[in-house]
Amino acid sequence: MPAPPYWDRACAELASRDEVLRRLIAAHRDDVLRGSGDAFRTLVNAIVGQQISVAAAAGIWRRITGAHPRLTPQALADADAADLRAAGLSTRKTEYIQSIARAFVDGRIDASVWSSMEDDELREELVAYRGIGPWTADMVLIFHARRPDILPLGDLGLVNAAARLYGWNGASRTERLRQHAERWRPWRTVATWFIWRDLDAEPVIY
User: Fold this and answer.
1) Per-residue pLDDT tens for 134-188?
2) Is 202 helix (H, G, I), strand (E, B) or coil?
3) Around Cβ 115, how many Cβ atoms within 10 Å?
């Protein structure tokens, strides 16, 4: 998947505005935001990753995709729930994923119309489904819709990494990030991705 069309411009503008991002962009100049290219796959991957470590999520994801390599909505809608739990999913996440798979199958979720929707409109549609909270919706907006100005303040890894990079102390890290990120507009997705890139040994992909 090629870089988003705004990537080079966003990197240049962010580097000119923010010394920390200038360093991160220089260090990871050969990496770009990438996603799976499939809306359902991105959504399921994000649900798997909710509230667990990156390593734990990666293990569960490998087992699910090993059992269902095509990972279609129909395949997961028809899957034995016990098999999904055996892959490491909780009972609740299994219910969420199979319910969302059925919504894709019957057309209640139609990713083909997402490109015509504003960020908040798409986020509102997604969070109407059980199992999709603001963080999960933001992962879809970033990695599948590849919207340029998403700031996932519900991502604790991002908040803590930003606090470390910018030297913020105290209990107001999320608010400090919210305020600081105003200088990143309209490229908060790109800034977020580079902070994640500095945090993880491999690029984040959903």
Assistant:
1) 999 999 999 999 999 999 999 999 999 999 999 998 779 999 999 999 999 999 9
2) coil
3) 8
CATH 1.10.1670.40, applies to 7-34+150-199: yes
Please work out, in degrees rounded to the nearest 5, the angle formed at the alpha carbon of residue 205 by the alpha carbons of 146 and 198: 100
Place of tokens 């997705």: 189
Please list, residue by residue across 145-170, b when 16 or more beta carbons sit within 10 angstroms of its beta carbon and e when fewer do: bbbbbbbbbebeebbebbbebeebee
The per-residue pLDDT for range 50-68, each reduced to its tens digit, is 999 888 999 999 999 999 9
User: How far apart (Å, rounded) are the C-alpha atoms in residues 191 and 184?
Assistant: 7
Architecture of domain 39-143: Orthogonal Bundle (1.10)
The full DSSP string for 92-150 is HHHHHHHHHHHHHHTTSS-GGGGGGS-HHHHHHHHHTSTT--HHHHHHHHHHTS--S--
- 189 with 33: CB under 8 angstroms? yes
Residue 66 CA, distance from chain mean position? 21
Using alpha carbons, select from 40, 206, 46 the residue that is nearest to residue 107: 40
